[in-house]
């Protein structure tokens, strides 16, 4: 890989994100999958789940907080599920669509899929981007790339920095 390729990035705009969500939702609909619940992996998956919820007419949205990436290319050793964990009673015997922005290593998605496997009737995954080295091959993918992705919600630095506030919850 050349130095120029190493610095290339996938740039997703809000406008292109809207198109991606519609196309991702169409894949789910064309497949005949009718989820009872969309389970979002926070934080990036919140945007995806909200868009898919509207496009697929699913009002039952849940959030799972998972901490893995701590910076560009910086991760914890393993993803960690943070409270509050979804109530398994709410998920039992349901068809679940797990939504996230990217399947990079796939470790976060695998953690959530393993959690769901014990509690739901069926779980499928939908992501905007999937990397070729992901442990999890998602059911619905808008685009595959091996580049770092600049998402419109995370390309700018935070307005304020709050150290350690998530893991202290």
Automatic annotation (TrEMBL):
SUPFAM superfamilies: PRTase-like. Residues 16-156 form the Phosphoribosyltransferase domain. Keywords: Glycosyltransferase, Transferase. It comes from the Bacteria. One of its GO terms (molecular function) is glycosyltransferase activity. PANTHER family: HYPOXANTHINE PHOSPHORIBOSYLTRANSFERASE, HYPOXANTHINE-GUANINE PHOSPHORIBOSYLTRANSFERASE. This is Phosphoribosyltransferase domain-containing protein. It comes from Streptomyces qinglanensis.
């Amino acid at each position: 890989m050349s130095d120029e390729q190493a610095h290339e990035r996938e740039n997703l705009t809000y406008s292109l994100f809207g198109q991606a969500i519609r196309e991702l939702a169409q894949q789910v609909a064309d497949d005949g999958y009718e989820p009872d619940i969309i389970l979002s992996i926070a934080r990036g998956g919140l945007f995806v789940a909200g868009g898919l919820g509207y496009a697929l007419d699913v009002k039952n949205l849940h959030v799972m907080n998972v901490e893995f990436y701590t910076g560009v290319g910086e991760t914890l050793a393993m993803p960690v599920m943070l409270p509050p964990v979804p109530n398994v009673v709410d998920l039992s015997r349901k068809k679940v669509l797990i939504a996230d922005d990217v399947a990079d290593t796939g470790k976060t998605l695998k953690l959530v899929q393993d959690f769901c496997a014990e509690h739901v009737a069926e779980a499928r995954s939908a992501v905007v981007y999937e990397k070729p080295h992901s442990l999890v091959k998602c059911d619905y993918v808008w685009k595959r790339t091996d580049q770092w992705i600049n998402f419109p919600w995370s390309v700018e630095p935070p307005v304020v920095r709050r150290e350690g506030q998530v893991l202290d919850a």
